[in-house]
Amino acid sequence: MIEDTGTIDIKTINEKIEKESAFVDLLTMEMNKVIVGQKHMVERLLIGLLGQGHILLEGVPGLAKTLAINTLSQAVDGTFSRIQFTPDLLPADVVGTLIYNIKENDFSIKKGPIFANFVLADEINRAPAKVQSALLEAMQEKQVTIGDETFILDKPFLVMATQNPVEQEGTYPLPEAQVDRFMLKTVIDYPKMDEEQLIVRANLRGSFEKVNPVVSIKQILNAQKAVREVYMDEKIEKYILDIVFATRYPEKYKLADLKPLISFGASPRGSINLANAAKCYAFIKRRGYVIPEDVRAVVHDVLRHRIGITYEAEAENVTSEDIINKIVNEIEVP
Q1: What does the pLDDT read at residue 135?
Q2: What is the pLDDT of residue 168?
Q3: Which of 69, 117, 199, 254 is most exposed by smallest CB count within 10 Å?
Q4: DSSP of 186-208
Q5: What is the DSSP string of 56-71?
């Protein structure tokens, strides 16, 4: 597959990507000082960071979600802020507000916690719609308006929102259109027994290693540019589009049995993010070209929140995960 592309010099791209992605191992090692296991979550955070996207993490409390993004911000030498979402939160608590200054007889701007490289939106589904939309405007536009002034947010800008799947009392579920703004939705599970043993030991000793900044903001920004240069063959593009179109028109892909289970399929944003995430995954694996395995590795995280399931599917206990599995198993790999 790679030999056909004589016009595009894969070898040069590969060498460039190998050089640019050298920091990935350093960053992972630094995070592993504090984060035990959870390899999947750490990888997804890196994909979000390199792909200039945002991540929605779902998992029960106590799985090191907060710790992970905090550790990442320390290892990247970026600024970190955490917003604990509550039902009485106001948009001004997130983006900032105008404060009247008596001495100056004028308004001054007090910036909110959104002005950071890494923002943890803890339990995003606990805040009312106004606050959610203030955060999502910042995520989408990468800018914030306070009063009549607009501020461009610092780069890189990564929002990691968490939601607790267990408790539904006093929550405001994110509407589909807002969930779609997240590049990835990652579901985290409990650690393995031997990993948890290490976590318990480290906590009882109270001796976590200090995380040092091993990557500069400049390196991350260069890496974000380099990711775009990762080569994607037309066959891989077609493979991505087949997967996305199968969520919309399953009957055209010999998957007619899925038709009554899907209320809506993935949007073009799904295709863009799937291609982008596959490139980021190839970059993390230090390759200058995308292979079908890269697409398969990220497809669940990119599409699980972009497929609507019908009441019929719920009645049959079919999840969007099951639908993605069926599609990926049916569609021919290039």
Answers
A1: 84
A2: 63
A3: 254
A4: EE--PPPHHHHHHHHHHHHHT-P
A5: EEE--TTSSHHHHHHH
CATH homologous superfamily for the domain 22-219? P-loop containing nucleotide triphosphate hydrolases (3.40.50.300)
CA distance 123 to 121: 6
User: Which residue do the tokens 């669940």 mark?
Assistant: 300
Fold topology of 230-330: Helicase, Ruva Protein; domain 3 (1.10.8)
Element (H, E) at 168: none
Mean pLDDT, 10 residues at a time, over the chain (334 residues)?
A: 55 80 83 80 88 87 79 84 88 85 80 88 84 83 84 88 72 75 87 83 77 85 88 90 90 86 89 93 88 91 89 87 87 82
Q: What would the DSSP string read from start to end of 111-162?
A: E-TTSSSEEEEETGGGS-HHHHHHHHHHHHHSEEEETTEEEEPPSS-EEEEE
Chain centroid to Cα 116, Å, comes to 17
Token pair for 317: 């206990």
- Cβ atoms of 235 and 334 within 8 Å: the answer is yes
Radius of gyration, CA atoms only, the chain = 21
Distance from C-alpha of 21 to C-alpha of 226, rounded to nearest angstrom:
9
Distance, CA of 214 to chain centre? 21
